[in-house]
Specification:
By secondary structure, the protein is of the alpha/beta class. The chain has a twelve-stranded parallel beta sheet with strand order 3-5-7-9-11-13-15-17-19-21-23-24, with no helix packed on it. A five-stranded mixed beta sheet has the order 1-2-4-6-8, with helices on one face. Helix 1 packs across helix 2 and helix 3 packs across helix 4. The radius of gyration is 33 Å and the shape is rod-shaped. The relative contact order is 0.05. InterPro entries: LRR_dom_sf. This is Pentapeptide repeat-containing protein. It comes from Burkholderia cenocepacia.
């Protein structure tokens, strides 16, 4: 804003602040001259200050890591920012003073936010609320808010997703919180959905649609709950990868039916594969479980890994390989051992088939019928 837009009194107030080298965080914001001094001190350009002291900015606002820990809210009120707005790595406990409209990214990560009251009504790109260690709820986000980029609230203190935006056009990250349920979360995520490292025991409340990857792994690491024990509530179709490794699963029932990418269920408690996806377009990894059988397996486009399953016998693996011709990845047996076992099974099947064919020949049937007609004394009927 140029000097002509201030009244003489407002300009005098601004000039006095400059002359005295005042601390912008200790002055009272009562005039446009005061507000201009704040904006100039923090290098904010292309701004308009209205008579109600609200500020529009036709550029990005970067207030990253500039305030002392003692400053808990912004001292001025932004309204429309036609760029990114970044107040990350400060000591803010409230979003009061943040803009109503942000035409770029909104970043309030690494603060001490206690609620999301005063959250912007419109954000054109991504939202970052990560590392707000006392943020326990997403309440405060205006209903109907659509996030046009990514939404991240990871590494906070969330116990619920209630209040979450329902439509995310990018990725949704709520990993590394204290969530016990996914209920209240977004219904549609066009990108990836990550709820790993939480206390959830099932996937009820997960988005109905996920455009890319789905990650619900590492849920047994929290000792307050037994960990993810069921995939109930999972989207039926995953366009990317599905990760549920390092959890507490005893069954795959309730999980996705179709996974275009990789399906990874390493380090669980599975003893069979009932409920496995009907189709996996990438690799499937079921290593480090308690598998005793591969019953329930449907189809995988690439490699199927099953190492560190000590109760899974060579015979079971060889029969599986012989029946499905699936390409095996990592396994507790060497490729040559499995191949020899497959060849042995094939040889036995060929011998049994040959014997059956021989038994079906006319002479063999005639001899068999004659033997069946023998009397109890062993004499044949004439």
């Amino acid at each position: 804003m140029d000097r002509a837009k201030l009244t003489a009194d407002e300009q005098t107030i601004y000039d006095r602040h400059v002359q005295n080298n005042d601390d912008p965080l200790t002055i009272k914001y009562r005039s446009r001259g005061d507000v201009k001094y704040f904006l100039e001190c923090y290098g904010i350009e292309e701004y308009t200050i209205y008579r109600d002291l609200k500020v529009d900015v036709d550029a990005s606002v970067n207030l990253n890591e500039v305030f002392p820990r003692s400053l808990t809210k912004l001292p001025i009120q932004f309204d429309v920012v036609n760029g990114h707005f970044d107040v990350s790595k400060n000591g803010l406990t409230t979003l009061e003073g943040c803009p109503r409209i942000v035409k770029g990214n909104f970043d309030a990560s690494s603060n001490y936010l206690r609620s999301l009251k005063h959250f912007p009504q419109e954000i054109s790109s991504s939202v970052n609320l990560c590392f707000n260690k006392v943020l326990a709820s997403l309440d405060g986000i205006p209903p109907g808010t659509i996030i046009h980029g990514n939404f991240s609230c990871a590494y906070s203190d969330l116990t619920s997703l209630k209040g979450s935006p329902q439509f995310i056009k990018g990725d949704f990250f709520c990993n590394n919180n204290h969530l016990e349920t996914l209920e209240g979360g977004p219904e549609r995520v066009d990108g990836s959905f990550d709820c790993s490292y939480n206390n959830i025991v099932n996937l009820i409340g997960a988005p109905k649609e996920v455009g890319e990857n789905f990650d619900c792994s590492n849920t047994y690491s929290r000792k307050a709950t037994p960990g993810l024990a069921s995939l109930e509530g999972s989207p039926e179709r995953i366009k990317g990868n599905f990760n549920c490794f390092a959890s507490h699963l005893t069954t795959l029932v309730g999980g996705p039916k179709h996974v275009n990418g990789n399906f990874v269920c390493v380090s669980n408690l599975l003893d069979n594969l009932h409920g496995a996806p009907k189709y996996v377009g990438g690799n499937m990894d079921c290593s480090a479980n308690k598998l005793q059988t591969l019953n329930g397996f449907k189809y995988v486009e690439h490699k199927f890994s099953i190492e560190k399953n000590p109760d899974l016998s060579l015979v079971e693996i060889a029969q599986f390989k012989h029946q499905t011709n699936t390409e095996l990845g990592r396994c507790d047996y060497k490729h040559d051992e499995i191949q020899k076992a497959v060849e042995t099974i094939a040889l036995h099947e060929a011998m049994n088939k040959a014997v059956k064919q021989k038994d079906d020949l006319p002479m063999a049937r005639a001899i068999s019928n004659t033997q069946m007609s023998a009397t109890q004394t062993g004499k044949r009927k004439i």
